[in-house]
Amino acid sequence: MAVPARRTSKAKKRMRRTHKGLTVPGMTLDRETGEYRMSHRVAPNGTYNNKQVIGE
User: Fold this and answer.
1) Which residue windows does the record flag with biased composition (Basic residues) (predicted)?
2) Residue of 12, 49, 16, 17 lying closest to 32 (CA atoms)
């Protein structure tokens, strides 16, 4: 059975796992409502790119 000759250090172990971190979704501040929302999505009031696209 293969057994490691030496214990892997904390630094080496964490360096190997650096790409596994969580990513934050692209959030933007809506100028009209003042709330954060996902970018490239229609705002809750039905606007997108400062134009009314849903309702009214």
Assistant:
1) 7-20
2) 49
Beta carbons within 10 angstroms of residue 45's beta carbon: 13
Report the C-alpha gap between 45 and 34 in whole angstroms: 12
Whole-angstrom distance, CA of residue 34 vs CA of residue 32: 6
Q: How far apart are CA 37 and CA 47, in angstroms?
A: 12
Rounded Cα distance between 49 and 47, Å, is 7
Query: Does residue 49 contact residue 41 with C-beta atoms inside 8 Å?
Result: no
Strand runs labelled E in 1-56: 27-29, 36-38, 47-48, 51-52
